Amino acid sequence: MNTISGLDDLRELLQGWRRCRERIGFVPTMGNLHEGHLQLVRRARSLTDRVVVSIFVNPMQFGPGEDFDSYPRTLEDDKALLEQEQVDLLFAPAVDLVYPSGVNETTRVQVPGVGEGLEADVRPGFFVGVATVVARLFNLVQADIAVFGEKDYQQLAVIRRMVKDLCWPIDIEAVPTVREADGLAMSSRNQYLSAGQRKQAPVLYQTLCQVAEGVRGQKRACAELEAQAIQRLKQAGFTPDYVSIRDAATLQPIEAGNARAVVLAAARLGRARLIDNVGV
Hints:
Layout: E1 2-4, H1 7-19, E2 24-29, H2 35-47, E3 50-55, H3 75-84, E4 89-91, H4 95-98, H5 119-122, H6 126-141, E5 145-149, H7 153-165, E6 171-175, H8 195-200, H9 203-217, H10 222-235, E7 239-247, E8 261-269, E9 272-279
């Protein structure tokens, strides 16, 4: 596996692959890799000739008081996992390569519609940070396919909309959420959970499944289902940010059952902020 942090070396390697007409798959990450990330890598491997994984903890998507400084950075362990998956290139750029004009002075990308509400309400500026860094990474790597997980459902919608609006020649491939045996969605932030909190954490997924069943049965209005879910999470020790039933394509609120709905939630449990979603 090649490990590159510089732009010239990156371009030289990628140009060689393109001259050989090899298709390039790309998996952008912030590192601290787990099985969920590796499933994305395997999907990219199945679709392309070469796989690039980036590790970059993006300062622009962290707000004041969030965990940018403490976000787990495990580059050597990540390298070992990627080598086992036969990744062709690990791209680990420094901040000044991604943001040569500085984080605060750089051109930014803002995605309307799907980039508003939900996570954007709780974390103002988050999706501007996500869209901007993904846009820069896409331009640097210029892959044929990029692979993302469905756990970050709104983020996936933002990226798809950005690619469509900016006419980029890259296909976005989604991989279903990878879960622990008890249903908890895999996340690097799960390690913030204490032993007791870890036992409680699957209640988030269980609650979303209950809401999804309620939407399918159409026995209650969406607002009532959302309120009941928030109450259940509070009783289980969570501090919910939201539980929301949305149109799966537009992420607009819906009032009653919809065949293309998705139930999204974010809630804090101790130091960990957990997000998840379940399709209906």
